[in-house]
């Protein structure tokens, strides 16, 4: 655990991370300030909150992951201290697991802070009315198939899904950082990949049809953007269509498999550097 805190201290020296925090804070304040629920129906207000989680919540989390984790795996190389660091016994292995531990903790804290602030501000705007009542409107699943779940409980479930998506994206960022060894390149590629997939999502496939649309939907479904926007967790036959809650274990298992595969690949790439 002590080595994880050492990685946290390194993180505090990353200039792009502090710039990301300031920009994210401004974005969060702006979005929450402009949040207005025009309907008096409480169920519609909760539905609007659920929609916000997958829009600005996911995008804000992705932004913080890109700015906060892009330098994590290559900071020693850029500062030319990697040779000194890895002279210790099992130094490379200890460093690897310390960085992975910090990345997971960073994802958890990012989602927790974004979730807590948005829930408090959004919920306070309508007094958390019907917070303990069963959820009536749901953007991802057919309401008739949902288990007994309160409105507030469903919002928490959405943030748990977002946490899994954040771990998937963090794995992608760390892998790319090991491959490139450059913070700026990692940030540009990861940010660009997120934007391209997000545009595809909002264009609803765009001009693609037939087999091309099927392939593109499959790529999107198993990408970190699919998990972070929580479309993958709906597990419908087509992206954008409601899923069945009884099938929720499938996307959860898929997310865990993706995270595990990213961890294995990351270790292989990290170990290959040692052999060289």
How does this structure look, described?
The model has no long low-confidence stretch (mean pLDDT 83). It is globular, with a radius of gyration of 20 Å. Helix 1 packs across helix 6, helix 3 packs parallel to helix 7 and helix 7 packs across helix 8. It is mainly alpha-helical and 276 residues long. The protein is built from 12 helices and no strands. The longest helix is centred in the middle third of the chain and has 35 residues. The relative contact order is 0.13. It has one domain.
Q: Terminal Cα separation, in Å?
A: 28 Å
Count of DSSP-assigned helices: 12
Integer-rounded radius of gyration = 20 Å
The share of residues in extended strands comes to under 5%
Beta strand count: 0
Q: What can be said about the biggest beta sheet?
A: none
Decide which structural class fits the backbone.
mainly alpha
Mean pLDDT level: 83
User: Rough shape?
Assistant: globular
Weakly predicted, low-confidence segments: none
The helix fraction, in percent, is over 70%
Secondary-structure element sequence?
Answer: HHHHHHHHHHHH
The tally of structural domains comes to: 1
């Amino acid at each position: 655990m002590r080595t994880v805190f050492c990685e946290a201290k390194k993180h505090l020296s990353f200039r792009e991370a502090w710039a990301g925090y300031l920009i994210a804070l401004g974005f969060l304040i702006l979005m929450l300030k402009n949040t207005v629920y025009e309907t008096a129906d409480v169920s519609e207000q909760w539905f609007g909150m659920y929609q916000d989680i997958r829009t600005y919540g996911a995008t804000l989390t992705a932004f913080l992951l890109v700015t906060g984790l892009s330098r994590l795996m290559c900071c020693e190389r850029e500062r030319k201290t990697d040779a000194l660091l890895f002279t210790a016994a099992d130094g490379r292995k200890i460093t690897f697991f310390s960085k992975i531990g910090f990345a997971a903790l960073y994802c958890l804290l990012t989602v927790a802070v974004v979730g807590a602030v948005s829930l408090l501000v959004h919920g306070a705007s309508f007094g958390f009315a019907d917070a303990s009542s069963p959820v009536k409107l749901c953007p991802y699943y057919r309401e008739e198939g949902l288990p007994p779940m309160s409105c507030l409980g469903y919002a928490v479930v959405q943030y748990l899904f977002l946490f899994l998506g954040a771990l998937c994206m963090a794995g992608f960022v760390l892998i790319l950082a090991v491959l490139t060894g450059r913070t700026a390149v990692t940030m540009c590629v990861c940010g660009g990949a997120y934007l391209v997939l997000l545009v595809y999502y909002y264009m609803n496939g765009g001009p693609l049809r037939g087999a091309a649309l099927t392939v593109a939907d499959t790529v999107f479904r198993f990408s970190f953007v699919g998990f972070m926007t929580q479309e993958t967790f709906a597990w419908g036959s087509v992206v954008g269509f409601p899923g069945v809650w009884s099938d929720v274990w499938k996307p959860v298992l898929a997310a865990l498999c993706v995270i595990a595969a990213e961890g294995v690949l990351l270790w292989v790439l990290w170990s290959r550097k040692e052999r060289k």
